[in-house]
Write a structure and sequence with these properties.
Largest sheet: 4 strands, antiparallel
CATH topology of the domain at 34-76 and 91-128: Immunoglobulin-like
Distance between the termini: 107 Å
CATH architecture of the domain at 34-76 and 91-128: Sandwich
CATH class of the domain at 34-76 and 91-128: Mainly Beta
Shape: elongated
Number of strands: 7
Structural class: alpha+beta
Number of helices: 1
Strand order of the largest sheet: 1-2-7-6
Helix content: 10-25%
Length: about 140
């Protein structure tokens, strides 16, 4: 008859391995491929910034349709076919889209990419800007 004895340490090691596997699997899910993004507005424009370390400007596509901004990109990491021992920097494609609170002047949109930060300035459409109406008295 085989009798197994468990020490509290072996149980804790097993729980830690299972928790690590759980977090590793969730870390690799698609939701972590998307870049961190900030967006703010004022009465003249909206600004979107995205953290894209390891990308170059040619790896990123920006498009605008109506009030929606779409970001797409692709990054390949050296050693794709290697046996990985740890991979925290993800590779592959991402796609994100954001609904703006107002339409924009697409011809006046400006984008810059510096030190891994993409900044997009989206000027508000003239037709959508609030206008003051003069009241005439008689």
């Amino acid at each position: 008859m085989l009798i197994r004895t468990y020490s509290p340490w072996s149980v804790m090691d097993r729980i830690q391995r299972e928790m690590n596997q759980l977090f590793d699997d969730s870390y690799r899910s698609d939701r972590f491929r998307y870049p961190a993004v900030n967006m703010w507005t004022n009465d003249r424009s909206a600004v979107v910034t995205a953290e894209l370390p390891g990308f170059s400007s040619k790896d990123i596509d920006i498009s605008i349709l109506d009030k929606t901004v779409m970001l797409k990109g692709k990054r390949e990491i050296d050693g794709e076919k290697a046996t990985w021992h740890r991979q925290e920097r993800m590779s592959g494609e991402f796609e994100r889209s954001f609904e703006l609170p107002f339409p924009v002047e697409v011809d006046k949109v400006k984008a810059s990419f510096d030190n891994g930060i993409l900044s997009i300035t989206l000027p508000r459409a003239e037709a959508d800007k609030p206008r003051k109406i003069e009241i005439k008295s008689t």
